[in-house]
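Researcher: Next entry in the queue.
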Amino acid sequence: MTRLIALLAFALTLSACSTTDELNQIPEPMGRFLLGHNVVVVDNPEVGPLSREASDEEWKAAMEAAIDERFGRYDGDKYFHIAVKVDAYVLALPGIPVVASPKSILIVSVTIWDDEKGIKLNDEPERFTVFEKLSGETAISSGLTQSKEQQMQNLTRNAAKKIHEWMLENIEWFGDASLMDPATTSPGFPANAARIDDAVTPTEPES
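Model: Structure for this entry, 207 residues:
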């Protein structure tokens, strides 16, 4: 039994590190993608039961940081804008372990814009529901072990990852990478690496 518990704890530790480890690598190819505007809208989202409260400004900052962290790694030559609306959330309150261990949830809607064409690439916003990543701190309840800021970072990173996976499923949106000039583009950067932005400024997407 002791060995089983030790192995489970080790697995939980690995899962907690997996998202940040991935971000510290060159991103998976995604055509000619270069992050343009990172638009996050938070307007009194629905708050679920047994939730901590977070301000619209706090959610906006957390979601923008997660999008920048993940998609800022790309170094293509065509701007695409990511617009995210925070629809609803639950930030788990401290609960009673095992008997009542509330989990954190985030629901967002996403639209991708092609800067050059000035059009939305998905006609209707794509909705994602994400949960906190299983780890040693969330196996019982993140409300017991994490601050509100940690919960929000966890959820927004998971949301950005889900958005990324969906975009990779629609990779044709982002053009043929073989058309890029290797002198001015690259396969991308790890999230912790410095990046020199392109001099061209993308246009503002329409609301």
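Model: The two ends are 57 Å apart (CA to CA).
Researcher: Noted, moving on.
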